[in-house]
Amino acid sequence: MPAIRHASKRKAPPAGFSDIEDDLLIFSNKMKDAENASTTNVPRHKVHWPIFQISHQRSRYVYELYYEKEAISKELYDWLLKNGYADAMLIAKWKKTGYEKLCCLRCVQTKETNFNSTCICRVPKAQMKEDQAIECVSCGCRGCASSD
Description:
This protein has 148 residues and is mainly α. It folds into 2 domains: 16-35 and 44-95, no CATH class; 98-148, no CATH class. Helices cover 38% and strands 0% of the residues. The radius of gyration is 18 Å and the shape is globular. It starts with 16 loop residues before the first helix and ends in a 54-residue tail after the last helix. The model has no long low-confidence stretch (mean pLDDT 88). It is found in: Nucleus. It comes from Amorphotheca resinae ATCC 22711.
């Protein structure tokens, strides 16, 4: 049998969490709605797109609070990452040059594509034909190249 977790063993959130708790609750409610949404008459590859988009928005929110606005402390930022409020791997990519607008990690993994390259959404719009629609199959992104 697995060990029983008691509420007294959990570490309380650091100072400043109460300031952003309402916004994180809104993201949590959006995520629940996306998970419980009906998937009838929706193509199979589009079912998880809303979940990816909400996860991206929540991670971007935490990223901007810490790196751009400097509104939260390092301790709170680490706590948020540790407790799954943001995707640490995605944020690590955002800090690298050329990946500032990356939509999800699946778009840069070459193993999951047909031609062992990045996703179509990573191609700059300037290099695409004007009438060509860009839409990522894995997350629904319409273009996340940093040069756009």
